[in-house]
Amino acid sequence: MTNTHALPVFRQIVDDLKRQIADGQLTEHAALPSERVIAELHAVSRMTARRALEAVEAEGLAYSKRRQGRFVSPKRLMYDVGSMANFVAGAAAQGIEIEMELLESTTIQASGTLVETLSAAHGTKLYQNTRLIRSKGHSIFVETETVIAERCAALWPGPDNVDLQRQRYSPLGHTAEIVIRMCALEPDPARLLGAMPYQAGIEQEQLSRDESGAPICFSHQIWRGEMAQFSATAIISR
User: Fold this and answer.
1) Please, which of 56, 96, 190, 205 could form a disulfide with 185 given CB 3.0 to 4.6 Å?
2) Which of 39, 64, 63 is nearest to 52 (CA)?
3) What CATH number is given to the structural domain containing 186?
4) Are strands 228-231 and 175-184 parallel, antiparallel or unpaired?
5) Do 125 and 149 reside in the same domain of the chain?
6) Domain of 32: which CATH number?
């Protein structure tokens, strides 16, 4: 590569890495060239090489492992947040097999922000499940789902319902209010997701309501930033 091209060398390196990923020369989870290799190959500084790798990662095409380097991201999950269809079935239709691990299942009492969020009285019995969702062993997101116990008996925490809680992933409720924002992965979720602390992630909150409009379930998800592409269908009225 020379500096005579119209594009800056930095951009050429980024485009070259993206082309290798798109063409399959660099397959899922394959290691990207190191800063040193890129710097020597393209006769640029280590800083320029680092910027190029960071740009590829920022676009969600690569992820980092501490002291190991950067690797090609697996296939992105196309997630239609406007659909109340089964999440696992939707992933399967894209050729992505979902694995679920139930990390914790407990009974709590409504307090703090959950009182307002779920329109529940202080002390109301709630069920809370925390799950880790993976594909081919690669973590996608961690979710904590809190439901009003008297309205969701099927989610009773206990040994008789472990399989149900592991497999179930159809959104509860009739309508949902969804908020999606960028976040920096705090150490605990980063550890669960196998990510670097404070790297870019996606935070999603979903409040599901029944047909009468009453809150029934609150879900909080933390995603690896490179693992999903969110979409929704809007109904525009005049």
Assistant:
1) 190
2) 39
3) 3.40.1410.10
4) unpaired
5) yes
6) 1.10.10.10
Q: How many domains does the chain have?
A: 2
Give the pairing type, strands 228-231 and 77-80.
parallel
Number of residues written out for the chain? 238
How far apart are the C-alpha atoms of 234 and 216, rounded to whole Å? Answer: 23
For residue 93, what are the contacts with CB-CB under 8 A and spacing of at least 6? none
| Spacing of C-alpha 13 from chain mean position | 27
The values of phi and psi at residue 59, to 5°, are: -85, 0
Residues 210 and 115 grouped into a single domain: yes
CA neighbours closer than 13 Å in the CB half-sphere of residue 95 = 3
The pLDDT profile of the chain, 238 residues, written as one tens digit per residue, is 444 457 888 899 999 999 999 999 999 889 999 999 999 999 999 999 999 998 998 888 888 887 888 999 888 888 877 765 667 778 888 888 889 999 999 999 999 999 999 999 999 999 999 999 998 888 999 999 999 988 776 555 554 454 544 444 455 567 889 999 999 999 999 999 988 888 889 999 999 888 888 898 899 999 998 887 888 777 776 6
- Is the whole-model pTM more than 0.85? no
